[in-house]
């Protein structure tokens, strides 16, 4: 065997781009630091930086505080009414909308399982997006998807006083972005090697909906959202999943990615 024989090019599984590795480390570090806080301090941090839809509804939507309080009383048991009412009075009594929580909530998580699952998905789908688009566009996509998820969740739960946290909306936006190209047909480059996922031309939307792999991928994603939102199997999560935030982030990622994609769409579409 010749010592000069070319080696097949491979991308190590754990060779994460710096932007993705940094993002994962930040999420893990923030959650680890929260473990060092007292319960009172952590609660205050959660209230200050999480998305609370009722706070936005009162401040920006013109909904009176009395309507929020009335919604809490409808169908509530006596033992659950008092804590929720107290929380609502505490949150809404501040009289602040806190618009920055549309982004800051994505850095907070409810448990180690929550942050680790999001980190795994972030690494899986953020990696091809960074390699294709670069660091700046990656962070833009994450931020826009997180904000879109927060807004859609607040719209669907306008009177909710419980805080919503997690990077799932940003991760969902990355999933949607990756769906544009990771399942595209493999091409061959002039140097004789097949294109990697992030090098392939973006598919047209009409081609995506006809791509069986994409349909299966999206079907599994939506099914997983349903399972974790309404079934919560085996105690994997500590609270219900905000599926509305996932959907909002996904829609933003799907719409935004073609606008920031540095590569053109595939030109040789399917022949009729």
Shape: elongated
| SS-derived structural category | mainly alpha
How far from one another are the termini?
48 Å
Looking at CATH, which topology would you report? Rhomboid-like fold
Helical content stands at 55-70%
Number of helices: 12
Q: CATH superfamily, please?
A: Rhomboid-like
CATH architecture: Up-down Bundle
Mean pLDDT: 81
Indicate the radius of gyration in whole angstroms: 22 Å
DSSP strand tally? 0
* CATH level-1 class: Mainly Alpha
Helices and strands, in order, run as: HHHHHHHHHHHH
β-sheet strand percentage: under 5%
The major pleated sheet works out as: none
Subcellular location: Membrane
InterPro entries: Peptidase_S54_rhomboid_dom, Rhomboid-like_sf, Rhomboid_protease_S54
Transmembrane segments: 12-33, 102-126, 138-156, 162-183, 214-235, 241-260
Protein name: Rhomboid family intramembrane serine protease
Fold and architecture overview:
Pfam families: Rhomboid. It is found in: Membrane. This is Rhomboid family intramembrane serine protease. InterPro entries: Peptidase_S54_rhomboid_dom, Rhomboid-like_sf, Rhomboid_protease_S54. It comes from Microvirga alba. The chain is an all-alpha fold. It has one domain (18-260): Up-down Bundle (Rhomboid-like fold). Helices cover 60% and strands 0% of the residues. The protein contains twelve helices and no strands. The protein has helices spanning 18-34, 39-49, 53-60, 65-73, 78-92, 101-104, 112-133, 135-156, 168-179, 205-208, 212-231, 243-260. Helix 1 (18-34) packs antiparallel against helix 7, helix 7 (112-133) runs parallel beside helix 9 (168-179) and helix 8 (135-156) crosses helix 9.
């Amino acid at each position: 065997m010749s010592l000069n024989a070319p080696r097949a090019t491979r991308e190590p599984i754990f060779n994460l781009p710096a932007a993705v590795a940094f993002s994962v480390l930040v999420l893990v570090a923030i959650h680890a630091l929260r473990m060092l806080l007292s319960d009172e301090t952590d609660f205050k941090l959660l209230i200050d930086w999480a998305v609370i839809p009722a706070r936005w509804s009162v401040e920006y939507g013109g909904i009176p505080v009395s309507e929020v309080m009335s919604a809490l009383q409808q169908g509530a048991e006596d033992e659950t009414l008092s804590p929720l009412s107290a929380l609502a009075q505490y949150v809404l009594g501040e009289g602040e909308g806190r618009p920055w929580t549309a982004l800051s909530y994505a850095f907070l998580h409810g448990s180690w399982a929550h942050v680790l699952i999001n980190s795994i998905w972030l690494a899986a789908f953020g990696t091809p997006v960074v390699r294709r688009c670069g660091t700046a566009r990656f962070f833009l996509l994450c931020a826009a998807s997180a904000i879109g998820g927060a807004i859609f969740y607040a719209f669907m739960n306008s009177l909710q006083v419980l805080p919503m946290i997690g990077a799932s909306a940003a991760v969902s936006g990355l999933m949607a972005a990756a769906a544009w190209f990771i399942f595209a047909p493999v091409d061959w480059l002039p140097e004789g090697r097949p294109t990697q996922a992030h090098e392939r031309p973006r598919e047209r939307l009409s081609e995506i909906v006809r791509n069986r792999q994409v349909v299966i991928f999206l079907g599994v994603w939506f099914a997983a959202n349903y399972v974790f939102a309404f079934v919560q199997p085996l105690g994997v999560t500590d609270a219900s999943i905000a599926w509305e935030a996932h959907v909002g982030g996904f829609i933003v990622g799907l719409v935004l990615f073609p606008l920031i994609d540095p590569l053109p769409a595939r030109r040789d579409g399917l022949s009729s």
